[in-house]
Every structure is written in structure tokens, then in C-alpha cells.
Amino acid sequence: MNVNFAERAHNHNWKLDPIVRSLLDTDFYKLLMLQFIWKNFPQVQVTSEVVNRTVRVHLAERVGMAALREQMEHVRGLRFRRSELVWLAGNTFYGVRFIFEPAFLEWLEKDFALSDYEIAEQESDDPAHAGQLTLRFSGLWTAVTMWEVYALAIVSELKTRAALAELSELELDVLYARAKTRLWDKIEKLRDVEGLQLSDFGTRRRHSFLWQEYAVQALRASLGKRFGGTSNTALAYKHDLEAIGTNAHELPMAMAALASVGSDDELRASQYRVLELWQRSYGGSLLIMLPDTFGTTQFLEHAPEFAADWTGQRVDSKDPYVAGDEYVAWLESRGRDPRQKRLIASDGLDVDDIVKLHEYFSGRIRFSAGWGTLLTNDFRGCHPRGEDTLEPLSLVCKLTSANGIPTVKLSDNARKTAGPVELVARYRRVFGSEAETGAAVIV
Amino acid sequence: MNVNFAERAHNHNWKLDPIVRSLLDTDFYKLLMLQFIWKNFPQVQVTSEVVNRTVRVHLAERVGMAALREQMEHVRGLRFRRSELVWLAGNTFYGVRFIFEPAFLEWLEKDFALSDYEIAEQESDDPAHAGQLTLRFSGLWTAVTMWEVYALAIVSELKTRAALAELSELELDVLYARAKTRLWDKIEKLRDVEGLQLSDFGTRRRHSFLWQEYAVQALRASLGKRFGGTSNTALAYKHDLEAIGTNAHELPMAMAALASVGSDDELRASQYRVLELWQRSYGGSLLIMLPDTFGTTQFLEHAPEFAADWTGQRVDSKDPYVAGDEYVAWLESRGRDPRQKRLIASDGLDVDDIVKLHEYFSGRIRFSAGWGTLLTNDFRGCHPRGEDTLEPLSLVCKLTSANGIPTVKLSDNARKTAGPVELVARYRRVFGSEAETGAAVIV
């Protein structure tokens, strides 16, 4: 009886189960940054690269080149759909309509295209490279930037699929029961926390698209107003949620690289130039700064007055208690009321961190959490045979050069420092050397 | 696209989702006992009744009379299917073929019918009855006996369904994720226990038929030879498993009632008369005695010599460590080697009990566990809103009279004693009064 013959035949014969189903399946900040780049840096050429910071996992052994290429090509073949563009044009983001200019949307529809890329398996005796994938992008910044989230989500989910393919139907069932139980136990800890504010930031390192969607729906159904929305634009669109996110390190990194041909003063000033340009395009809640690219303390110390008028700060590599205290003190020193400002933590958070941070900052500053990989990919200990193949990786995709000039990131956590050694040395001289070997990078 | 229109329409319109899908959906021992009754007591009239020993739960408020009647009528309309009868006739049970006589199978096919029943809601100020259901059966013993498992499974699953109907789709998903995680955590504790032997005994108080089937498949897939089979005949048939079980209290209870019109000696002797009759029909591994109906110690003390030749004992109300030690000592006192005998514990066991009992008796007697309600209905703490509506009840269905004479059960646990006060007094005089207020009856 009830056999769906069409579905069975389809399941047996499909050629590709796409990982990225729509160009909106990306973090919202990528779209904001894309418009920013399209407007301010339309001719800049960049390279960027996927890096697996979890070097003990040999990605190339888990993710097949052919499958990776197939998924990448699928994304390259996607176009923004008419209905998606109409939504971007007419929807209210952060309380504001018409954030995207008509000319930009027209360009998105007609001229946007993803850059070329290079895929290879790394052969090396260096344990940081052995068995790793090379996945490198080069071209116009406007054509490269969007790859970041698509590529990370593809690599992450291909790794997931390879691990799932080893499991029987019953084992799969155990796996998901455990992961769901884990997720719901987490949600129960958040359910009754007064005034809590959190969003999903877990697109790039998710277990899978469907699992992220499940997690987002679970949060929406359970947390009410405590759930602010999702960074995933496709999920925001599909489920009428707030799209969350503003900007990322690639802006100050590229602008610093471009400025680095000049004097040390020009290099140092570039980090504030980002803010100036950003506030020409965006206002209000979108004025969230990310001061840790070259060290938060020096950033705040020398920041121009207008930076204190921004809406808030995102903390992504410093101990968030320290960073929040520092921001509160800085705002007070500049005569601003921290209780009117926002502090967003987004670095490897899990539920207990979120609750503790919320309590710590309660009444002092408006705290909110960007809950990432440990929301959308916490399968630790869930594998039915006790294997670690479904544990999340610390995967990133970073700009490596702009107009041929290598980029550098110092970060507040020395484990996240990136760039050629000699350039890192110069940046440290210019910006100071405050990065400390901080917490181990889990995700 | 892939919408199964037929299935959707069916789901919206079905009249009855049957709980008992086949007459084989019962404990195997009921079929063995049915043949025993058909052969030895074809004219005896009995009454039996469902009792909820978890009196704090007002069953009548959870289980609707109309739905109950509908499910009962559905079972009454069922017939043994030809293929089921062929299987009963030709299959090997406990290593023996042709356990069921052709004449019995012919009777099953042509003349078997379930008795009439009475359903009512109890109105009473007595907390043991207030809000409880009356579900009472009367007629020929051959027509009443099979109701036990069907009725218990129906009441149990109707209660489940009522609780599930309160939950959203997402809450249902949480619930089952938690219950599956619980089940798999239990299985992991059993997986590597050397020489373990256990079977599913959880039909009557299961969460639902499908959940029992899931649990049985999980055990089969994970435990290999450690999983001996299931008491559920339909599942044994469907999944090619061993059907497990031999006999229950209703035999000595009915035979004692029938003997109780005579002398105390005749009453006392009736408990051994069951064994005599049983071994006329069955042999080998089916010779498992259940000595606790009127107290295990007196039973063993006065047991005829042939009882020591039986294959083993099932412990259902006494502390299983004590009962096992007692049985081992008794076997030795009768010159039998306990290591050739089987000890089956089946009273409210959970995974830790099973492992500990297995270790305790290892090398001394062949221990095996009948894992019941805490295998097939352990949803404690799984309810997404923290309610207790899905926790299992201590539901039983017991013979209350035979040929108009009330039945009595003393048991080794005074909480399980049943029968009219004045008759219990006589039985205690005859059999002794060894029942102690034992462990609280969970399930």
C-alpha cells in the first residue's frame, strides 16, 4: 500500500543532493559586506583560502575531491531567484527598509558571479598541512567574498555525509536521537533565563542545512523573544525570522593590506577607515564594530570619537568577560551609557557560557549571544560507535591577499593569528602585540 | 512535488488506528496456556479484571470509554490468519516443533472467540477506586484468558495516545529523541556483558506497539546472542525471533480456586497439580515453574521430586537475589546441579538490575532476564513539558474467580496480594504467610 513510487525512484536515482540550495543560504553579513565591497572596492582583486585549524583531522581523507567539485559547481550555477531579490529589496532588516540599493540588487540579479577556485589535496610532511585540502579562490573581491560561507558549509556537510554513509539506518536513528536530546537539553537551560537574547550564527560549520533548520525551528518554538533570529539569510527568508549579522574581519584585513603599501600611520588608520566607510552605507543596529582584527585594546584606545556612537561591539577572539568589561569602561570613559549599547559574543559559545555571560553583563550592557557551531553541529559523543567523525572542525575561510598584498590578522587570541611571519612582525610593531595564547580553539 | 496524496488523504480520514493488529500480538505464554486450558479446563467459567495498581493515576480521566470500546471491538473482530496458524503449526519453539496440536489449531481457526466484557467508570470515595476504570471479563476460561494482554496493551497505549495528543509535532520529536537516547544508553550498558541473556517481556505495559517493535529491533541489532527473543508472538513471527514465555499465575490461581471447595490438603496440593498437568503437554525448556503464587518457600519445601527435574524457575515477586539463592540451595538439597538449570527474573527489572543479577548468578545457575515495562515504556523524564502522563502504570489483569469461586494470590510481595480478605486469611493459614511488604511496585 502507501508506497510513494515516485519518491522511491527519485531517491534511488538522484544525481546530486545539493548542500547549498539557494544563494541566500549564507550569513546575512556577507550580503551587507558584498554591497559594501561592490560600492567601495569594485576593482580590488583578492585571494582567499579554506583552512582547517583542526589539523589532526585529515580533511582530504574524509571529503572526496569529486564530490566537493560537484557541490561547488552546483553553487556556481545558482542565481538569485526573483522572489529572493524582491524580499531583499522590500524586507525590513534590523528595523530598516531599503538597506540594499536598487543598483546593487540589479547587479546581484544580472552580474553577480562566483569566482574561479582551485581544489587540491595537500602533500606535505608538515603536520599542519598533511592530508589537508587546498580550496583557494581568486578574482574580484565581489566574486570571491561569497565563497566563504558556501565553501565552509559544503566542506562541513560533505564531511558529515561521509561519516553518515558508514552508519546503518538504526545507527543513524540513534545518532539523531542523541543529538536532538542534546539540543533540547540545551534549550531547556535557556528557556527560563529572563531577558536572554541569542541568535543562530551556525551556518558555516553546521552539521547540515537540514539540521541547522531543525535547530533554528527548535529555538524559535521554545525561546520566544529570547531568540533574536538567524544569521542564515535563507532560513530568515523561509521562516520569517530576523536576519542577523553585520560585518567580519575580511574588511579590516583587506583595507589594512591595501594600506600597508604606505606608512605605518596609514596602516594603523585603516582599521578606522572601515568604520567610516561602513557608516556611510549603514546605520542604527548595523553599526556593530569588530575591534579585534589587530587587537582590541589598541583599537579602542586610539578610536575616533564617532566610534563611541556606534551601537555596539562584537567580541570574537578575546575572553568575552574581559572584552565586555573593557568595552563598558571605554564607553564610560567616552561619556557614553553602556546600558544603551550592545555587546555580542560569538566565539565558540555553548549554552553554559551564554547563560553566564548574560548574567554577568545583565543591567550593565545589552548582551546578546551569537550561538554558532555548538548550536548547529554539536554531535560530540553522539556517534553510535563512539567515533569522532561527526565532531565539528575549526574550519575558516580567510582572505590571504588583496591586490596581491598578503593580509594579516593578529586577533586577541594568538592561536588565530594569520599571515606571513615577516608581515605579522610589522603589524605587531604597528598595532602592538597584545594577542595572548588564549583558549584552545574548539570551533 | 513528492506528496503522497493517497497517504495524506488516508491519514486525514482513517476511522481507527488499531492498537492490537493481530491476535498474535500477545505474549507467547498466553497461547501455551490457552492450549493447556482448552485441553484440561474447556468448561471452566471465569471472571477476570483489569486493575491499575498505580492508584494516584485516575485512568478513567485519561482513557475514553468510547475509544476503549472501539479498540476492544476491533480485537474481537480479529481472527487468526491462515499464515499465522501455519506458522504456529510448523515453527520451532524452544527448539521443539509441533508444540501446538492440530486439533487446537483447528479450534483456534474455527471456534476461538473472545468473551464479552464490561466497561465502566468507577465512582467511589475509596482512593483505590476513585476515577479508575472497570474492565471486566466473564465467560469460558478459553474465551476470557486471551483478553489479558490485549486489554492491558490497549489501555496502556490509549493512555499513551491521550498524552501524545497534547503535544506539538516538535514536542513529539523531543519526546522520542529522549526516549531513544534513553533506550540506547541502556543498550550500551548491556552490549559487552559477557554471557548475558535477556528477552523482551514488555508487551502488556508498552508505550505502543510500534515502540515495542522499535525496542526489540534495537536489541536484536545490538546484542546479538545476548538477546534471546521476545514474549510478543507477533513480533517473533514478523522478525524471525524466538517466542519466549511459558506460564503465569492464572493457572495455579484458578486451580486453587477450584480445589478450595475441598480440604486444605487439596487446596495445598493444587499448586503441584498445575505442574503435573503442564508436563503432560509440554517438556524441555517449557518446564519453567512459577512458584510464588502462594509463597515460594512453602512451594519448594513441599514440592514433589519431579519438580527438581524441571528446567528452571521464574522469579516474579520475591527479591531475585534471595529467590535465586534459595532455588540454588533447594536444587542442591535435591541433588541437582544448578548450573544446568535456568533462573528467570521478570519483575520490574531495569538495565542495572539485569547486569548485577547476571554477575551475581554467573557460573552458579543459568540466569536470564525478562525485561518488561522498563524496556518498552520507559518515558520517565522524557515529557517535553515535564508532565508525568507518559510514565508507565502498574496495570494488571487478574483472574478473580473460577466457576464462581473467588481466586486468591498471596505472592512473595504483600503489595501484590489479591483476593477477598476472608479467603486470603484461609490461604495464609493453608500455605503459610511468608509474603513480606517488598519493594514498591513500579511497573
UniProtKB/TrEMBL annotation, chains A, B:
Pathway it works in: Cofactor biosynthesis; NAD(+) biosynthesis; nicotinate D-ribonucleotide from nicotinate: step 1/1
Gene Ontology molecular function terms on file: glycosyltransferase activity; nicotinate phosphoribosyltransferase activity
InterPro entries, sorted: N/Namide_PRibTrfase, NAPRTase_N, Nic_PRibTrfase, Nic_PRibTrfase-Fam, Nicotinate_pribotase-like_C
Pfam families noted in UniProt: NAPRTase (PF04095), NAPRTase_N (PF17767)
A Gene Ontology BP annotation from the UniProt entry: NAD+ biosynthetic process via the salvage pathway
Record Gene3D superfamilies: nicotinate phosphoribosyltransferase
Domain Nicotinate/nicotinamide phosphoribosyltransferase: 197-433
Protein family according to the UniProt entry: Belongs to the NAPRTase family.
Protein name: Nicotinate phosphoribosyltransferase
Organism per entry: Granulicella tundricola (strain ATCC BAA-1859 / DSM 23138 / MP5ACTX9)
